[in-house]
Amino acid sequence: MVFILRFFLIVSLILLFLFPVLDTFAVNEEEITYILPYGYPFYEPSLSAKKVYSIKLRFGMSISAVKIFQSNNFIWFMCHKIGDDERFFLPDVFVYYRHDKSRVRDFIVSGLMDRDESAGTGTERYNSYNSSFSRISDISTAPDVISIGIDFPVDKWHPVPLFYEPEDLISIPARYKAPSSVNRDLKLRKEALYWFIEMIDDAENEGIEIKIISAYRSSAYQAILYRRAIKNHGLRQTWVAKPGYSEHQLGTTCDLGTAESGYKLTVDFEHTRAFRWLMENSYRYGIYLSYPKNSAWLKGYNYEPWHFRYKGKSRFNIMSNESETFFTR
Ligand SMILES: [Zn+2]
Fold first, then answer.
1. Which strands, in side-by-side order, build the sheet including 211-214?
2. Structural domains of the chain sorted by starting position, each given as residue range(s) with its CATH number in brackets
3. pLDDT (tens digit per residue) in 237-277
4. In the chain, what are the helix, strand and coil shares in percent, each to the nearest 5?
5. H-helix or E-strand containing 31?
6. I need a surface site. Which of 13, 119, 134, 289 has the fewest CB within 10 A?
């Protein structure tokens, strides 16, 4: 019996892999949101299709999606503006889609299709999409506050509500910013800023220099970075997160740098003294590396040794208290 079930599972996986017929996934007039700063949609579901210059879309615009297609290894939505009948097409990289359990099959299939990304084979990715499905929470309405310390994963498959903005953002003092960022108003949530500063001060006392290169980003600003990345590296770029899919929007996350690696966001940062110090100490401040080596299969983002998220100091306290209880028992 188990054998037969397993056989059917394998056969259906192979069939899905060979025949990912996507236009069988009908959508019933659902709302999606356009997430690039501005742009034109396409006449057909194809990257070489003519653009519809009579329709200009802006960041945050709500659109109705009526059907889904597959072309050029992209999911395409057949759409129309609300209250307007003219049909047009948008690839999935142009839109924010509310993760909704009833629609997750589309994401599974899209995972199978992204074969040219560096995140493993189709089957591995199928499994990772499946495991992320079980963790998807319903966040269709934007919360006012995402509490620090709760398990709120943000990665390629777990978005922040698109227009979420924390209320307690505070500007980072100039001396903590990298030279390239000193004229930018970088912000973090109050509690996160406090612990990043504590950590950077303590590192400095041990002769380690750490500076903040980037911190809070609104989804609108992320849209500008996202568009630039698409322009420079194409629609399949994996460097910049989709607006709404970046931990920076939480206001608890920093990109860190040091003079030793020229304050650059490169993998070379891992060879610096600053990085080694962070690996040994950051957790004491409730601060963790978000995208470690070999986690792309799970989180969808490449290794980013510079990207750290404050997850809550109490988390560390709870952990150390638990281990204390454990050892005294
Ligand atoms: Zn980052």
1. 211-214, 253-257, 307-310, 287-289
2. 20-135 (2.30.30.40), 169-318 (3.30.1380.10)
3. 878 999 999 999 999 999 999 999 999 999 999 999 999 99
4. 40, 20, 40
5. strand 26-34
6. 134
For ligand 1, the distance from its centroid to the CA atom of residue 291, given in whole angstroms, is 9
Distance CA 228, CA 320 (A): 43
User: How far is ligand 1, taken at its centre, from the CA of residue 177, in Å?
Assistant: 14
Is residue 70 over pLDDT 80? yes
- DSSP string over 218-264: -HHHHHHHHHHHHHHH-TT--SSPPTTS-GGGGT-EEEEE-GGGTT-
3 state SS of 133: helix
What Å distances lie between residue 211 and 82, 111, 259, 268, 297, CA to CA?
46, 36, 9, 16, 29
CA distance 270 to 286: 20
| Burial class of residue 228, CB neighbours in 10 A (0-12, 13-18, 19+) | middle
Q: Decide: 196 and 148 in contact? Cβ < 8 Å.
A: no
CA of 2 from ligand 1 middle (Å) equals: 45
227 Cα: distance to centroid of ligand 1 (angstroms) = 16
Q: How far is the CA of 290 from the centre of ligand 1 (A)?
A: 9
What's the CA gap between 107 and 188, in Å, rounded? 32
The closest of 286, 210, 229, 222 to 248, measured between CA atoms, is 222
Find where tokens 């698109």 sit.
162
Which pair of tokens denotes residue 146?
Answer: 């995402």
